Amino acid sequence: MVRGLDTGEPPALVICECQRGVLDPAVAIFPGLAQQAQERGMLANIARLAAAFRAHGLPVVHAHVAHRPDFGGVVVNSMITARSRKAESMRAGTPDVEPMQGAVPEPSDYLSVRRSGLGMWYGTDLDATLRNLGVETVVLSGVSTNLALFAGAIGAVDRGYRAVLAEDASAGATPEQHEWMITNALPLITTISSVDDIVADLSAR
Length: 205
Description:
Helix content: 25-40%
Number of domains: 1
Largest sheet: 6 strands, parallel
Number of strands: 6
Shape: globular
Radius of gyration: 16 Å
Distance between the termini: 19 Å
Structural class: alpha/beta
Number of helices: 8
Strand content: 15-25%
CATH class: Alpha Beta
CATH superfamily: Isochorismatase-like
């Protein structure tokens, strides 16, 4: 791991898709991902990281999914959207979209909601929110390293942000997929860091 926040660039924490329909084993449509998040203690690490950002007056943004109840605007062009549509999962107003304990937005936090697509930047106000806050570095956490966080990192870099992954505050669909992504793909576009190092860097700012 390398420390990722020692450049002085204003950072924000983005917590990706930590919602019941994704991470609650009782209702998640990808149980393996929910199990990985649980086994890695991901939500506890996210809670600690978010508390540190808030304590330093830095933005915490929750990137959520909440499809229209009628799935209007959702194109079934991938296995993920097909499974969501079949299960009628992640619809606005249902328990699926509720945040998990450890990643519940606080009044000072920001919420960015995606109603279609697969990435946190698509059709949302995330970019505008971060730019208006003067953010230059995006610290990514949540799920999943093999899809949404990878797309999130690419989207951040494409928009001129620096991306940092809080590795122990994230999870992938399987241990093997997570390890492959943080070893081979994500280091090309992000700094791979840890909650301990990021919290230490925040305290040193």
